[in-house]
């Protein structure tokens, strides 16, 4: 990728192509910004994510 972050890459795809992978693959129509993601993830305990990465 040419971008520093997944979200920035999705924003660029949206502006150039009118669609992005977040929308196409995951059904995310409004891409969140970094503070929004931090607010959401900040409420999750790290131990809760361990099962995802077994």
Shape: elongated
Spans of at least 5 consecutive residues whose pLDDT stays below 50 are none
- Characterize the largest beta sheet: strand count, sense, and whether it forms a barrel: none
Task: Compute the number of strand runs.
Answer: 0
End-to-end distance, in Å? Answer: 27 Å
| Structural class by helix and strand composition | mainly alpha
Oligomeric composition of the shown chains: single chain
Q: Count of helical segments? A: 4
Describe this structure in words.
With 54 residues, the protein is an all-alpha fold. It has one domain (6-53). The chain has 4 helices and no strands. It is elongated and about 40 Å long. The mean pLDDT is 84.
């Amino acid at each position: 990728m040419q971008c520093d972050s997944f979200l920035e890459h999705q924003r660029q795809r949206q502006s150039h192509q009118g669609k992005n992978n977040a929308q196409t693959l995951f059904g995310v129509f409004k891409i969140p910004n970094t503070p929004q993601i931090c607010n959401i993830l900040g409420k999750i305990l790290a131990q809760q994510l361990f099962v995802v990465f077994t």
